[in-house]
Amino acid sequence: DQQVKQNSPSLSVQEGRISILNCDYTNSMFDYFLWYKKYPAEGPTFLISISSIKDKNEDGRFTVFLNKSAKHLSLHIVPSQPGDSAVYFCAARGTGFQKLVFGTGTRLLVSP
Amino acid sequence: KAGVTQTPRYLIKTRGQQVTLSCSPISGHRSVSWYQQTPGQGLQFLFEYFSETQRNKGNFPGRFSGRQFSNSRSEMNVSTLELGDSALYLCASSLARGIQETQYFGPGTRLLVL
């Protein structure tokens, strides 16, 4: 049972445009959400997170939006850069636990 | 501050053997979690250790085990290796002070079982 879903396995965007990566979850007990970026042969690198009490969090070019009623979150990257090309994972966690439940990832390709 | 380190980075074993992977968390971090990444399954949670105690466990067979030492370093052991155990094994650490916080990952150990 996939509790965190990233339905788009890949996304191609031109440099300078906006990249929007989507994530859906099914478990209403999740209260903290994170996005990680992963390059080949490296571990995931933390990008940005959001608590369930918020609906938006920004950090430079990265913004995460959370729609609790729809159980949906998205990551916006503006402007996109070629160095952003990587696999992006969303992850969720329930109250009091360290276990992260990951989506299957979206491969982002930003072309010059 | 040094990041999470994992050793070895690459490992080749044969079916039936056992393997031990090591993880050193970020200094001051008390929680260590292990994940398995495979192309088809994404990142799957194995277990989490906090203050030398396993706090949470994923849906993996008993061949997968781990432990944590008093300095928060952790080891993961897989016995009787199977071909399907070939994967990238990732370790993550966090402060785990009971507030919402981030797990930081190491570079992983890539295990190939022949």
Protein model, in words:
The mean pLDDT of chain A is 93. By secondary structure, chain A is mainly β. In chain A, the strands form 2 sheets. In chain A, strands 2, 4, 5, 9, 10 and 11 form a 6-stranded mixed sheet that branches. In chain A, a hairpin with a 6-residue loop joins strand 9 and strand 10. Chain B is mostly beta strands. Helices cover 0% and strands 53% of the residues of chain B. Chain B has no helices and 11 strands. In chain B, strands 2, 4, 5, 6, 9, 10 and 11 form a 7-stranded mixed sheet that branches. In chain B, strand 5 and strand 6 form a beta hairpin. The N and C termini of chain B lie far apart (37 Å). The relative contact order of chain B is 0.33. The model of chain B has no long low-confidence stretch (mean pLDDT 92). At the A-B interface, strand 4, strand 5, strand 9 and strand 10 of A face strand 4, strand 5, strand 9 and strand 10 of B.
For this entry, give a set of tags:
heterodimer, A: mainly beta, Immunoglobulin-like, six-stranded mixed sheet, five-stranded antiparallel sheet, 11 strands, B: 114 residues, four-stranded antiparallel sheet, globular
Largest sheet of chain B: 7 strands, mixed
* Structure classification of chain B: mainly beta
Pair with the biggest interface: A-B, 25 and 29 residues
Q: How many structural domains of chain A?
A: 1
Estimate the strand proportion of chain B.
over 45%
Q: How many E strands of chain B?
A: 11
Residue ranges of chain B: pLDDT <50 for 5 or more in a row? none
Q: Approximately how much helix is present in the residues of chain B?
A: under 10%
Tertiary shape of chain B = globular
CATH topology type of chain A: Immunoglobulin-like
Helix count from the secondary structure assignment of chain A? 0
Task: Provide the residue-averaged pLDDT of chain B.
Answer: 92
Poorly predicted regions of chain A are none
- The oligomeric state of the chains shown is heterodimer
